[in-house]
Design a protein that fits this description.
This protein has about 240 residues and is an alpha/beta fold. It contains 9 helices and 8 strands.
Length: about 240
């Protein structure tokens, strides 16, 4: 079974679109969807209509890392998939993952494109097709065998920002074989709606460099809050 884990903080509107999209997959591959809801959520996410394939979980701790770990403990699947609420997977999502992990690969990510025809955003998205400095971001939808995830002891809950990159760092350190599937996810441009293209990209670069040089999670969070205007990041 594949367990799709979606961390959510005031994501009701996005989940009302995403969940039916995944629930309606025509596939013989068994799967479940676990929505890990932040304790600070105030938009009524718990009232979302859903099928038996979906389990809504109220995380006792705030923060995306804590939410995803909490859902992972409740997951039944041998494969864990970590999907953002504003990211839409392709129709072959599940079969892509199953096939990728059948070739001595233990983890992986997807390439993506934005839900916009903006030329510069197309350039940004093109970098997700190959391994590079920005590989491992949450929008690329990490998938990993549950045994390997548990071996790495899950996400670092003290990493209040860039928990995805920190986990990927450990994947590489432990020489866990991974791949990038070139079948685009559709990623929301909402971050760019509140910030300029240059501001977002310069901010991302600054945060990545500071992270790689060992900047503390609290300081990264503080810098991120100053650089990027956002109303949806888990707090």
């Amino acid at each position: 079974m594949i367990s799709i884990i979606v961390p959510a903080h005031n994501e009701k509107k996005n989940l009302e679109k995403l969940l039916p999209h995944i629930e309606n997959y025509k596939t013989t591959i068994p799967y479940e969807i676990l929505v890990a809801i932040s304790p600070n959520t105030t938009d009524g996410t718990n009232s979302i209509l859903h099928s038996k394939k979906v389990l809504l979980l109220n995380s006792p701790k705030k923060g995306r890392a804590a939410q995803m770990n909490y859902a992972a403990k409740h997951a039944k699947g041998t494969i864990l998939v970590f999907l953002h609420a504003d990211v839409f997977p392709p129709k072959s999502f599940l079969s892509d993952i199953k096939q990728a992990l059948s070739n001595n690969i233990d983890a992986g990510f997807f390439s993506y494109k934005f839900d916009s025809d903006n030329f510069f955003l197309k350039i940004n998205a093109s970098f997700t097709r190959k391994d590079g400095i920005f590989t491992g971001g949450g929008d690329q939808c990490l998938f990993i065998k549950a045994k390997k995830f548990n071996t790495l002891k899950g996400f670092n809950e003290t990493q209040i920002l860039m928990e995805d990159f920190e986990f990927f760092k450990r994947i590489k350190k432990n020489k866990i074989p991974y791949t990038i599937i070139n079948n685009n996810l559709i990623v929301s441009v909402r971050k760019y709606e509140h910030n300029s293209y240059i501001r977002v990209n310069v901010s991302n670069l600054i945060l990545i460099v500071l992270f790689k040089f060992g900047c503390s999670p609290k300081k990264l969070k503080k810098i991120h809050s100053k650089l990027i205007k956002t109303q949806y990041h888990n707090g």
